[in-house]
Design a protein that fits this description.
The protein is an alpha/beta fold and about 475 residues long. The protein is built from 12 helices and 19 strands. A 7-stranded mixed sheet has the order 3-5-4-6-9-7-8, with helices on both faces. Helix 1 packs antiparallel against helix 2. The radius of gyration is 32 Å and the shape is elongated. The N and C termini lie far apart (about 80 Å). The N terminus is likely disordered.
């Protein structure tokens, strides 16, 4: 500090320069205190400093007078700077971020700061598809009256619509195309002027982003509590890297299974010259320094979903007494690809089969079949060329007894198929791009047979694309694959 003062006093004697130097003094002093570094390393240094000070200040009073003047000017500059900086900060920050602390009245809404209010107590934002927000349940018209429907799983998008774009569409696709599970969706889309005024940027995220542990809409809570498993779909922005899924929730088995499944099959998508996907679990502590200079793909521990009050962790207890669920935070670019339903985009259809199939596998169901073409051959019938198109299921091993605790997906003798009274439990049906049935197999004896399924068409009459369904003839469950171009 003494060294800094001497250096200051050797500068030109003007208020502007003293003010400028004042900041440097404070920064250097703070640095010295924080690092415990002494700028005077020897008695010789101290003696030289005192000699220099004596040259500039022949009397103690002159030193005291100048120090007082310096202190006054520095304090004035610091105060002015603080006012300016604070003013800019106030102007740049939204007046109220995350306006609604929860959905319904409750103690969680009263925790300051900032003041948060229940959504149902605020007249500024209107409910309705053409207004500011809405909720919906898929498969069941009245979630509370039909809690036994929709299987054992609840799918949540509590930050749907424009809050975390793409999450509503992902949960909708998951239950309508892949798994007939329960679904709850809270969708924000600010349109009315009164609602926009709650945030200077009219940000749907800032207005309607209700924290997962505070999301207390009774319909959603009751739906989750009535079933043993759930998955909550979220979107991560700057808190995660591109091509990343941050896997959380307290269901450690589901976290481990989803991560392993996606990492095992994501190469099928990456082989099509797509960038690498990162599936990172959030169950372990962050290691920001291991290895050094590497930014983690999932950058905030707030993405873990480990809070016991997080709605996804409030299921009915399953066989092991756990009420924990699975939470997926998905980067914006992956959300865009998962929700791109272009008829000719077979790559993103493959991506959906991998990601959504991983969700199914993590929640103790069979995954979606991952379909690929497998060559063709030409043969002649009655002087006409026919082409046999071969297909394969790349994740066929997921349907073996070893992968399903001994469960025989293709067990024989549990259904009839025409004259065959010893047909397989699971049938394979092939459909074209117009959803028309093409061909099928009802007597496959094991999962490895999925590597060599086929259909035949006269030359030039093949459909543009096909997909398959695996149909369990005992339970009625259906597992749909991705589409492949023919």
């Amino acid at each position: 500090m003494l060294f800094s003062i001497v250096w200051i006093l050797r500068s030109e004697n003007s208020a502007g320069k003293i003010c400028k130097i004042g900041y440097k003094v404070l920064l250097q002093s703070l640095f010295l205190q924080m690092t415990n570094i002494n700028s005077l390393s020897s008695l010789g240094d101290i003696k030289d400093l005192l000699t220099e000070m004596k040259t500039f200040f022949p009397t103690i009073s002159s030193l005291r007078s100048l120090l007082m003047r310096f202190a006054q000017l520095s304090l004035s500059c610091l105060c002015l700077g603080a006012i300016v900086l604070t003013s800019f900060s106030i102007l740049s920050l939204p007046a109220r971020a995350d306006v609604f602390g929860c959905y319904e009245p409750g103690n969680v809404c009263a925790a300051p700061p900032p003041p948060k209010i229940p959504l149902l107590n605020e007249p500024s934002c209107l409910e309705g598809q053409d207004n500011d927000w809405e909720t919906s349940c898929t498969l069941i018209n009245n979630c509370l009256a039909n809690l036994d429907k929709g299987g054992d799983v609840t799918v949540l998008s509590i930050h749907g619509g424009n809050i975390e774009p793409g999450t509503s569409e992902i949960t909708e696709g998951l239950v309508e195309t892949y798994y007939p599970w329960n679904r709850y969706d809270f969708k924000g889309h600010v349109t009315t002027e009164d609602c926009m005024e709650l945030d200077p940027d009219a940000s749907t995220f800032k207005i309607f982003h209700i924290t997962s542990k505070h999301f207390n809409h009774q319909t959603a809570r009751d739906l989750v509590a009535a079933h043993p498993k759930s998955v909550s779909i979220h979107g991560c922005g700057s808190s995660c890297s591109d091509r990343t899924i941050c896997i959380g929730g307290r269901d450690s088995n589901a976290v481990t299974t989803f991560k392993a499944y996606v990492n095992q099959y994501k190469g099928l998508w990456e082989d099509m010259e797509h960038p690498v996907i990162h599936a990172e679990d959030q169950m372990t502590p962050f290691e920001l320094g291991e290895p050094p200079n590497v930014i983690p793909y999932c950058r905030q521990q707030t993405l873990t979903g480990l809070n016991v009050d997080n709605i996804v962790n409030t299921n009915s207890s399953d066989g092991d007494g756990s009420s924990d669920g699975l939470q997926l935070e998905i980067s914006f670019d992956l959300r865009e690809e998962l929700t791109d339903n272009d008829d000719d985009d077979y790559d993103n259809d493959l991506l959906r089969s991998i990601i959504y199939g991983g969700v199914g596998r993590a929640l103790d169901d069979l995954p979606a079949p991952i379909l690929a073409t497998n060559g063709q051959d030409v043969y002649e019938v009655n002087d006409q060329n026919w082409i046999r198109h071969y297909l394969r299921v790349d994740n066929w091993e997921e349907y073996t007894p070893e992968a399903n605790d001994g469960f025989e997906v293709f067990e024989s003798g549990l259904s009839t198929c025409g004259l065959n009274e010893n047909a397989s439990r699971t049938w394979v049906r092939i459909y074209d791009n117009n959803d028309q049935y093409v061909y099928g197999f009802c007597a496959l004896s094991n999962a490895s047979s999925l590597q060599q399924i086929w259909f035949a068409k006269p030359e030039g009459q093949a459909p543009d694309s096909v997909y398959i369904k695996l149909i369990d003839k005992v339970t009625g469950k259906t597992y749909k694959s991705n589409r492949v171009a023919i």
